[in-house]
Every structure is written in C-alpha cells, then in structure tokens.
Amino acid sequence: MNDNRTKKKASLPRLCLISSGEECADNGTLLLKQLALLPRSLSCMVQIREKKLDAKELLTLARKAREIELPEGTLLLLNERIDLALAAGLDGVHLPENACSATVLRTIAPALIYGCSIHSHSALQLAEEAGADYLLFGPVFDTPSKRIYGPPQGLEKLGELCQATSLPVFALGGITPTNAPLCMEKGAYGIAALSLFHDTARFAETIEELYIHLNP
Amino acid sequence: MTPMTPVMPSSPFLCVITDEALCPISLAEQALKGGAAMIQLRHKRASGNQLFLWAIEICKLCHKYHALCIINDRVDIAMASNADGVHLGQQDMPIAAARQLLGHHRIIGISASSLKEAIQAQNDGADYIGFGHIFPTSSKKKDSAPLGTETLRQTTTLISLPIIAIGGINHENAASLISCGASGVAVISAISRAPDQALAADKLLCSINSSLS
Q1: Collapsed DSSP state (helix, strand, coil) of residue A44
Q2: Which are the contacts of B81, defined by CB distance < 8 A and separation ≥ 6?
Q3: Of A92, A120, B57, B204, which is most buried, counting CB atoms within 10 Å of its CB?
Q4: Contact A59 B75 (CB under 8 A)
Q5: Domains of chain B, start order
Q6: Which pTM does this prediction carry?
Q7: Which residues of A touch B (CB under 8 A)?
C-alpha cells in the first residue's frame, strides 16, 4: 500500500467540518473565514461541498483554501470531483453514494484520501469493497436540512454500523457538543457537522469544546 | 501503456451532443449509425456514477464506429472512462488545469461565443472550438443574440484551430456553415428529437458533404 496513504489514514482528524453549500460566485467567504479561524493546536478534516458553484468557481475556491496556512494534520477534501481536487492540490475527495466508485478513481489519483457517504448496510459493503479511507454516516440526529428524507437514522443504527466495519466512521447530522459523546460511545471515530460551525464568532470555541469529547 | 492519441476528423464532420431528456446510449448509437464522427456526453443532472457508466458505453460504441467520445465539463469522468477528451464551457475548469491532468494525448474543446473567447481558447492551447450559437436555438436558454454566419466566417479566417459550429443547425443550413470555414457542426435536437435519429444524422451529413462539391 502507498506509504503516504497509510500515514494519512492513520492520522485522520476526528472532527470533520463540511462547508455550508451556500456560497455564491463572488462569495467563498464563510469557508475561507472558518479555515483562518481553525485553532492552531487542533487538526480538522475540511470537506468543501459547494453545490451551487460551477467547476471554475469551485477550483478558485479550492485553490484559495489551499493557500491558507492550516493547523498541522488538517486535511482539505473536495466533494466528488477528483479533477478539481488534483488541480488545487487538495488531500482527497468525499464521495456521495451515487458518485463514481473510489476503486475507479484511485487508479487515476492513488494518493488521494477517499471518503464515502453511506446511508445503509449495502452502501457500507460497497464502500469497503471500493477501499474507502473513512465513512460518513447520517443523519444521526434530527437536522432541518435533512427532514425531507424522513426521520434521522438514530444512535442505534450508528452503533450497528460501527460494529460492522473496521473503517473510521464519522457521525453526521444534528451533532452538538452535548450529543457528540453519545456517538463516540457507539463506536464512531469522529463527528462531522455543517451548521454547527456557521457562527464564526464562536467557531474556535465550538471546535475546542467538541474536541474534549472526541478522544478514543 | 501508451494511450492511442485521438485525432480530430480531417473532413467536415457531425458532432452529436446528448439530450438531457433522453437515454444517451441509444441516441449515441443511432447518431453513429448515421455517420456522426464525435459524440459529446452532456448530462448536467446525472450522478457521477451514472455518467461514468454511460461514458464507458459510449466510448465503446464510438470506437466501434471510429468516432470520438468527448465528455462535457467532467474531466474526472473523462479520465475515469478513458474518453478521447473533454468539452469545457467558459464556466468549467480552465484549459491549463485540464491539460495538466489530461496531457497532450486527449482532446480539449472549448465553447466560445465571441471571436475574443475563440482567440483566448486558441492561446490557451485548446484542440478545437465549439462556436455559437450561430442560429436561434431552443436547446439551451440563451441571453445573447445569435452570432450569424458572418461572425463565423470571420472567426474561421482568424483562428487556425478546427471550429465546430453550434446552435440551431439543421440539414437545410449545415452546408452554409462548412462554406464559412467550419470544420464541423454540432447538434442536439436536430438528431435527438427526430423520429428516426440515424436517418436525421445521415441527412445532416449529406448536407455537410454537399458543401464540398
């Protein structure tokens, strides 16, 4: 196995910040502001997920993000597009369930980290076969943006899934500093969130608060 | 393995772009049967996995008919499916970045809607230019006026790259575009919405070839 990959995998941060998806063309500001505010002593996975941007704007944003000096161990990932991730020199991609398989993409970009969103046991199996580096599972708790898809998956299902795999699982959906420990008790490797980090005034504080609960 | 370097067609040709509303596989096959030399897979709403699966199938079909398979916007999908190239709009990945990923063994086409954009694309190292829209078109929402054949003629005179004319093209006006110096024409609805797609492609190609005699 690629040495670089093993190293990165072994040291995946336990907190995953997902960008809001609300950025407009001339306004990649929230994500860039968040990156500049990351506490220096803590590492994060940062997933750039801006579905409203076209490829050109996304590449510009990814390159700006890459230029920011980030805390050691922080990883920058882009949603799905390995072409843009490679062009911007990011660390990896996060694949939705309906993306091109990591098996295929790894033949083109072997050094990238590949994360997979999963919502079921069958998706878990596919992600394992594809050699995912980590999994993202949710929504664990109720979250307004996901209500249209039905009720949350819940802690029990998170626990079953973590039991069923040796891959690191990040819990997503309605995560707060209060319920984060419950996810960790169920076997989650870490947690992921979007809106929790929107208040940039309390951003660093929120991350520090969460990290207290994220040690194994 | 050294990849086979795809080559742009040397005589005036037909490029068929897939229709968002239809399955691209059967459309590609019919277009190829009718003589299309280039298929562009363009589905803005399809998932990455779906695009990849389609791209693999269309590449196979294209190579069976000695035609080129070009992927719109998604350089990642073009790389994954080993397609012949990509077609990039002005809001897609810049050519320089795409070239670095694809190398010189893959075709990069650029959409241009003015002489200025065409010159830029040529300077940036594009392999061909999709130029339009030449005539009024219903396939895509446009907020600018059609360029017309005179602008096409000026552009083909000043640009050395192959220029594929696009926008409102049918078998009645295709010949005039080749006469203006276009290397090929690209269509969506003229083929996709025809009752017999292969026949429609054949008819368009006949019109293209008639300009040569």
Answers
A1: coil
A2: B52, B55, B56, B59, B69, B71
A3: B204
A4: no
A5: 13-210 (3.20.20.70)
A6: 0.94
A7: 54-57, 59, 80-84, 86-87, 95-96, 98-101, 104-105, 107-108
